[in-house]
């Protein structure tokens, strides 16, 4: 059954009372139904399911490029299950922005109750979000950000700039502790134009510029293992013997880069030729941190489905929702030589974050 009228009223109500929550990297969930009693949310979902009146949700997912993405997809599909009262229409957009816009337009034609988007890139959204608004369909954005429109009711995800700032700050403190004075860095970026790639690149570069480090090169590895391997193979040829740090913007790129460096006879990890830094902190990534192959891995938390479903339940219940919800994201290291790092985050706040030494990846991994 279409809840358009209810949703329409709620969207206008929310527009008048949106509250942005804090933006520090250690902000957990704030002011969202995710913080409300889980029972309340579960009961609401069970009531919906019991009524047989499923809530239709269209989800346009980035693709299937990484372990992180798989965890994200599984999280959303579990939260928006039929037993929880939903009819989830899922589209894997295969990292193709045109396909993603097309999927959203199809959701509008299908007259869904809600649309969830993980935007492949952060621009090019205002036209189709206006179409969603005109159709009275609330949009929730998860993970990556949309930077050219605010025509959505809520966003759940990560502060990518802070992830980059944290990685740069850790490298500064780690190199000082290890007595390494000359850093020559190669970066394997994520999918170009994604907010994750932009934030991690800009955040890390801010520290690199302040410290006078040399970034020898920074190329797109598309967040895939093949991409990481291909870029690293090229780097090993072009910059043979010139680099001592590799920054991969996700774990799957790091896995590919490790294969390429191994084939080229370049050692990486703790007390090796190259310091290896990664992002995401999936289980396989933390296993490499535990073995000392990856020096540091900065968590990006993918299990956002329950937060997104809680927002839908809040909307169904006529409650207001927070415009932003930031995930809590620990930082993992291979060695116990730094207790914590302190840096000024993207919101201008001084943040100190304890570092987590990986001793048992299986129990310490979130996904
Ligand atoms: C970040 C997410 C990125 C991950 C990659 O929030 O969008 O995309 O870091 C994934 O693993 O492919």
Task: Give an overview in words.
The strands form two sheets. Strands 7-6-8-9-10-12-14-13 form an eight-stranded mixed beta sheet, with helices on both faces. A six-stranded parallel beta sheet has the order 2-1-3-4-5-11, with helices on both faces. The protein has 367 residues and is an alpha/beta fold. The chain has helices at 4-16, 38-50, 67-79, 97-109, 126-134, 160-178, 195-211, 225-238, 251-263, 283-291, 305-316, 361-364; strands at residues 55-61, 86-92, 114-117, 139-143, 154-157, 184-189, 214-220, 245-248, 275-280, 296-299, 324-326, 331-333, 340-344, 350-357. The two termini are 35 Å apart. Helix 3 (67-79) packs parallel to helix 11 (305-316) and helix 8 (225-238) crosses helix 9. It is built from twelve helices and 14 strands. Strand 8, helix 9 (251-263) and strand 9 (275-280) form a beta-alpha-beta unit. Residues 65-66, 68-69, 143-144, 158, 196, 223, 250, 279-280, 300 line the site of beta-D-galactofuranose (GZL). Residues 65-66, 68-69, 143-144, 158, 196, 223, 250, 279-280, 300 line the site of beta-D-galactofuranose.
Q: What topology does this entry show?
A:
Layout lengths: L3 H13 L21 H13 L4 E7 L5 H13 L6 E7 L4 H13 L4 E4 L8 H9 L4 E5 L10 E4 L2 H19 L5 E6 L5 H17 L2 E7 L4 H14 L6 E4 L2 H13 L11 E6 L2 H9 L4 E4 L5 H12 L7 E3 L4 E3 L6 E5 L5 E8 L3 H4 L3
Bound molecules: beta-D-galactofuranose.
